[in-house]
Design brief:
Residues 1-20 have low confidence and may be disordered. The protein is built from 17 helices and 13 strands. The protein has a six-stranded mixed β-sheet, sandwiched between helices. The chain has a five-stranded mixed β-sheet with strand order 9-13-10-12-11, with helices on both faces. Helix content is 46%, strand content 17%. It is an alpha+beta fold.
Length: 435
């Protein structure tokens, strides 16, 4: 047995409560920044992230793409340093700076060695990026051109076309309908003043959530968080997004010169803090989230050969995110495949999973849980999630118990309350609009 497999086997043999136990500490800085921290001295590494409610749902009217452009420019010139100088400063100490962006949030992540010299240099650079972005005119122009080119290139991908159309049909005028990348015509008109105004409003201390994981003490963590928060603007927290209005049944067909038809359908699903999160999550594993073990795969692929893959998932966000089902198939059988998938969903809502299906789903989910927290990077991801969405601090400690507590009745009740099979948004992208 290899060393890697040996340690994996050892990890899996540990009591699950031991594997999940994390001493999560949390506090708030004087500026109102939330901080969440796990101290771990096993590796000489510090991972940290800073997240803001600055995703694409925050794009102002007529300025689709402002949030994405602002985020992409943070490390492209800050505190008088060029993008090249910033990259060199990080490379000189072996640090890595990265970013994350979606409809809800925009974040910056730093990984650095925990030794004093390297940690100090990396943190100094992060502070400049977060607190003093320059938004240089020449770089802004270059980044705008890059984003516009990427959007137009994506128009050749039928999957991207289908996904954008699905969000528009599902959310209508809600901010979640905004495409994460923005719109070319709007991006072309964005100015440096737009970027600075968006940055001041959304990248403020009261809006920030800092997650820290690794080889530092509580006192060091407090000092780092204090420094990061102190130099941000003091603009008040942004208002909550409105509740999405569930869409009525629609059927959108888009002609695209693709080799297959891309089929998506679904409805508004659940928010991150939904009390039925676990019944929906576990139930969906049976329906379409469990790969080859799922009902959709059996009905669409195994029994009829309509598609190589068929899936479903919930995307929980700050407000109710989408519940989406999807598949790719030949143009001639797109409607037949869609009918089978819809019928499978309808039957699942009416009957729920069998006891055997549910037991298998729970065993697979709990058995794979240790791999979700087997690295500092993965744990940091959960810490930022817990902090940003204000989840319980014992979220990871209770995760397995929450999954195991789900029963058939809970799944049936949760799906019946959230998903109406007669009110689904459908999008088909393919040759001839798949008609």
């Amino acid at each position: 047995m290899s060393i890697k497999r040996f340690f994996l086997a050892l990890l899996l043999s540990l009591p699950l409560s031991t594997q999940a136990a994390l001493a999560i500490q949390h506090w708030q800085t004087p500026e109102g920044t939330r901080v969440i921290f796990v101290e771990n001295h096993e590796l000489p590494i510090l991972d940290m992230s800073v997240d803001f409610p600055a995703g694409s749902a925050r794009d102002p009217a007529g300025k689709a793409g402002l949030a994405q452009l602002t985020h992409s420019l943070l490390d492209q010139g800050a505190g008088g340093l060029s993008d090249t100088a910033i990259a060199h400063r990080l490379a000189d100490v072996g640090a890595a700076l990265s970013g994350s962006f979606d409809r809800d949030r925009a974040g910056v992540t730093l990984r650095t060695l925990s030794s004093a010299r390297e940690k100090t240099a990396a943190l100094d650079t992060l502070v400049l990026v977060l607190q003093k972005p320059d938004f240089p005119q020449a770089v802004t122009k270059r980044e705008k051109q890059r984003l516009i080119a990427a959007i137009r290139e994506a128009e050749a991908d039928p999957g991207t076309v289908a996904d954008k159309a699905f969000y528009r049909a599902l959310y209508g005028k809600h901010p979640y309908a905004h495409d994460e990348s923005g719109e070319p015509t709007a991006i072309e008109k964005l100015t440096r003043n737009d970027l600075q105004a968006f940055y001041r409003t959304h990248y403020s201390a009261p809006n920030a959530v800092i997650a820290l994981m690794g080889d530092i003490t509580r006192a060091e963590a407090e000092a780092i968080a204090a420094r990061l928060a102190a130099g941000l603007s003091k603009t008040a927290t942004v208002p909550a997004l409105p509740d999405p209005v569930p869409a009525q049944s629609t059927d959108t067909r888009i002609d695209h010169p693709s080799t297959q038809s891309h089929v998506l359908f679904g409805s508004v699903g659940m928010a991150r803090d939904d009390p039925d999160f676990f019944p929906l999550y576990v139930g969906n594993y049976v329906l379409g989230g469990g790969g080859f073990d799922s009902r959709l795969m059996r009905e669409v692929r195994d029994k009829r050969g309509y598609a190589y893959s068929a899936y479903s998932y919930f995307m929980p966000m700050m407000e109710a995110g989408p519940f989406q089902l999807g598949l790719q198939t030949k143009q001639a059988q797109a409607d037949d495949a869609l009918k089978v998938a819809r019928d499978t969903l309808r039957q699942f809502i009416a009957e729920g999973p069998s006891e055997a299906e549910l037991a298998q789903a729970k065993a697979n989910l709990t058995g794979g849980f240790p791999l979700r927290i087997d690295s500092n990077k993965k744990i940091l991801g959960y810490l930022s999630l817990i902090g940003f969405y204000k989840l319980p601090l014992d979220y990871l400690d209770t995760w397995i118990g929450q999954v195991e507590a789900v029963d058939v009745a809970a799944v049936k009740r949760a799906f019946a309350a959230r998903v109406d099979p007669d009110k689904l948004v459908t999008v088909v992208v393919g040759p001839g609009g798949a008609r």
